[in-house]
Amino acid sequence: MVTQAIGTGRVDGQRWSVALEFHETLPTGYTLPTLPDGSVAPGTSLLCQRMFIGGVRIDHQGGPWTDCQPVTGTDDPSASGGMGLWGLHDKGLTGSRLMVSNPEADVAYGVVSLSDGTRMKATTVTVPGTAYRAWAAAIPNGKTITTVDQYDAHHHRLSHDTNWR
Fold first, then answer.
1. Is the Cα dihedral 133, 160, 113, 141 positive or negative?
2. Which of 19, 29, 82, 141 has the most beta carbons within 10 angstroms of its beta carbon?
3. Helix runs in 5-112, H state only
4. In whole angstroms, how far apart are CA 6 and each of 11, 29, 43, 93?
5. Please, what sign has the CA dihedral across residues 36, 38, 39, 44?
6. What phi and psi values does residue 77 have, to the nearest 5 degrees?
7. Residue pLDDT, tens place only, 28-45
8. For residues 27 and 156, is the Cβ–Cβ distance under 8 A?
């Protein structure tokens, strides 16, 4: 297993952290999910996104493999391109929250802009020996996200999202 810290800090007086955890082989106790057609999902490895606020793992109620996805090897393209807003309350709609992106390979960093003018820049970090990467930023309670932008290494904007709150 390889664990890579993606982001850490403090939000609303609490420590937060996000890490990617890569298991080269499927760990003991993990079972590949069954798809709606009855077949078993493909995957030879497991990629987990471990998110904590105030020492509590987000989605811990779902068991040890919550926020994990099966992947095939160290460079499965199905693991990139997603973004989410996570929290301990109301499905990430209230309280301290974490914005986490698993961007495409050309994304060097993300910028989360809030309605009060605050801009938070988060650099993309890659798990050593793999193509799996992420960036993370913490959103304080009561703050509203206005935009989430992603940029390449030359500071060209690659995406502009306004659908987060």
1. negative
2. 19
3. none
4. 16, 25, 23, 22
5. positive
6. -65, -15
7. 999 999 999 999 999 999
8. no
